[in-house]
Amino acid sequence: MPEKKQFRAIKGTRDILPPDSALWSRVEQAARDVFANYGFGEIRLPIFEETELFARSIGAETDVVSKEMYTFQDPLDIEQIIQTLVRRGIDPTKIHLGEGFSKPQIWDALQQFEWLTLRPEATASVCRAYIEHGMHTLPGNVKLYYIGPMFRRERPQKGRYRQFYQIGAEVLGQSDAPAIDAELVEMLLVFFRRAGLGLTTLYINSIGDKNCRPQYVELLREELRKVKDQLREDSQRRIETNPLRVLDSKVAEEQPIIEKLPRIADHLCAECRDHFAKVKDELKLRGVAYEENWRLVRGLDYYTRTTFEVTAAGLGSQNAVCGGGRYDGLVELLAGPPTKGIGFAIGSDRTILSIQESDAEGWKRRLPGLAVFVAWMGAKSYPAAVSIARKLRDCGVSVELPPEEMKFKKSLGLADKLGARYALIIGEDEVASETYTLKRLSDAEQKKLNENDLLEYLESEKRSG
Ligand code: AMP
After folding, report:
1. What pairs with residue 373 in β-bridges?
2. Tens digit of each residue's pLDDT (9 = 90 or more) over 146-167
3. For an engineered disulfide with 247, which of 24, 103, 262, 295 has Cβ 3.0 to 4.6 Å away?
4. Is the per-residue pLDDT at 83 higher than 60?
């Protein structure tokens, strides 16, 4: 006998079970509702893309691309092989004749693989889709949102997973008006409120654009070189590869050094300074409270100007529930037309953790639970039980109908354990009198109702929540 193996979810991935999954649905529905009110439409994207898409947009030196991507080789299918041969000047129809090409040439062409990556984030994919579908010709700004899993090979801990979920929104188009930034942030905070997230803090910053950021990065690099000996290995490496990321460091002994570094706010060009000032005015106009954080540079290369982050309570060190920013020029970098863009990605896992931790008792109570448990007894009452269960479900009432007869006491015990609000008692007496006994389980109050009154009563209960 082969050894029996029990399978477990891969490290950093997890199953989301009821009742947690009901909270996930509610949070996702809040996003759909709020985003629709702001004119956003959903985009459903592939889970994997060409590796190069991410490498080029996120940046080869970022942690995400250099260390964390799930990348695999996919053998080309016959169509792709033929296209490759044709691109190399080999006519596939003539291969059997052995004309005009060498065997190694064909072998080389057939050995082609495509490098694919499980998406570590979705902004690059949205930009790819924007270009692929010529969305720049659409009227006004293109406003899209997505919901789904992302993959990064990070060290798993509370609030950090290898398969995690994001809810994101992007605005793409010709305008970089500060009102776009502010409205997007307003929408984000409206979502957090609607989702039931308690205390959140919004941090904002501007990291300049291609005119002023390179000079600042150079200045930062020079200053960092002077203090290199006092920094840890990670930061030392980043001085050369990506000095902005040093500002992200959480290492305690580096903090006093970082605090003395030059700040980007003092090195923005006039346009970026003006843009940032107007974003802040627009936020004030909308009553959105924010804190400025000059060290908020974000981990991905494509950001320009506005960056922002939201943190929430109850999450320990992994307390960022959303990151976002402007990425003018990213579409162009991916060979699309000149386009402005801004977006955010909410971490669903952490948002839900925060809701659960801040209201350990309450979150379950607010979910729609089981309304009715049908306690039927006796073979003669079974057809009536099946029929009423169907009618109640058609009215949108959630019903549990035991598949096998149970003793009355056991039936009520199970109804209680399942958290049902009511037990609907159907015995032979009820069938004979064409009435039902509805028992409220919280206080054992009972009513006798005919079918119409029962349906009406439970439907109105459902409406009043
Ligand atoms: P980023 O795409 O890195 O800007 O992340 C945006 C948000 O996604 C973060 O604020 C987190 O809430 C969430 N997030 C990023 N990486 C992970 C992860 N490995 N596990 C759980 N949530 C994550």
Report:
1. 400, 423
2. 999 999 999 999 999 999 999 9
3. 295
4. yes
